[in-house]
Amino acid sequence: MGDRPKDLNPYLIEHVRDALAHDPRVGELDVVVEIDGETVVLSGTVATADRQEAAADAVRDLLPNHHVRDETEVADFVEPTEVEHLP
Amino acid sequence: MIRIAAMADVHFGTDAVGTLRPHLVRLAEQADLLLIAGDLTRVGDPAEATILVDELRDVRVPIVAVLGNHDYHTDRPAAVTNVLAGAGITVLEGNSISFDINGIRVGVAGVKGFGGGFPGATASDFGEPEMRAFVGHTKERAAHLESALRSLECDRRIALLHYAPVPETLQGEPVGIYPFLGSYLLAEAIDRVGADLVLHGHAHHGSEQGVTEGGVPVRNVAQPVLRRAYALFCFDGTDNRVPVELPSPPELAGWRYNAH
Ligand SMILES: [Fe+2]
Ligand SMILES: [Fe+2]
Which one of A28, A49, A83 has the shortest CB-CB distance to B234? Predict the structure, then answer.
């Protein structure tokens, strides 16, 4: 055993990302996951409000002893105002 | 003049009813054609495609799409394609379609594409069968793209992909995942034949603009990259590539400042 402190959070982050991709309520690959102590921080854009809520729920189900801070935003993409001209 | 609207990565689900339609009301005035560069659904459930099709019902221009990886997730790409085709949407995979628009013939060659990476950091078609299958799939898609482009005798040719053909439009994504976001084999196929525009999606954190080695403009039209519902392009035979303001309804003024 080395004397380096064990940081298992990098593994945990990938497990959370995997859960968000595979949870039938979520199906999002693009949520940014960070772990700060006992807090899981979610950020990035999700497609709908239902999926935003489901993502936080999925993390709580996976890590019941962690607190979830949800900083994700629900996409609302309106029509463009510019045209790109090509030859 | 040919006006193209393009979008990707709408990831539509049964929870998204009504979220897209209000932003498409002017599309048919602004464009002659709508191209969708994959990830139409959340997990490739035909019920999700049904919701999307309903959302697109007021878009009274031809719609051409390719599927993305999300549309394959539950192993029902044919059923998703059937729902789209049933609503009059052309779904391309290794084939092409062309339209006469204002006396100009425009062709679209479509393929999902796949990963493998970019020069200097590519996966090799070697070793385990899984690895050979991975790179082999990309090689096959690229070959189909090349033949689909070659089949087009048009004034303007567009390659419609889901995966990226160049690394520039991936900037913003972690470099380590570039090989899962696209492949140079797609750009090579395009450059062998030539094209006027390449559209793709998939890289939600990527960048809008790139170019192939052969000089073909590449645009990442993933909605999270555009931060708008779709992008507009116009082939007008000039060399003016400066964005031009469209008259926009007053209620949309300031939309850019809504932080997402
Ligand atoms: Fe996507
Ligand atoms: Fe994708």
Answer: A83
Ligand 2 center to B21 CA (angstroms): 22
Q: Is A2 on the interface with B (CB under 8 A)?
A: no
For residue B68, which ligand has an atom nearest its CA?
2
CB hemisphere CA count around B132 (13 angstroms): 4
The CATH classification of domain A10-74, taken from the options 3.30.1490, 3.30.1340, 2.60.40, 1.20.120: 3.30.1340
**pTM score of the predicted model:** 0.91
Q: B254 to chain A: which residues are within 8 Å by CB?
A: none
Annotation: CATH topology of B2-252: Purple Acid Phosphatase; chain A, domain 2 (3.60.21)
Q: Do B224 and A45 touch (CB under 8 A)?
A: yes
* Spans of all domains in chain A: 10-74
Residues of chain B with pLDDT under 70: 237-260
pLDDT in tens, B56-112: 999 999 999 999 999 999 999 999 999 999 999 999 999 999 999 988 999 999 999
Mutate to test the interface with A, among B2, B4, B10, B19 (most CBs of A within 10 A): B19
- Contacts across the A-B interface (CB distance below 8 Å): 119
Nearest CA in chain B to A50: B15
Q: Quote the DSSP letter at residue A6.
A: P
User: Tens of pLDDT along A30-86?
Assistant: 899 999 999 999 999 999 999 999 999 999 999 999 999 999 999 889 999 999 999
Q: Which ipTM value was assigned to this complex?
A: 0.89
Interchain contact B13–A (C-beta under 8 A): yes
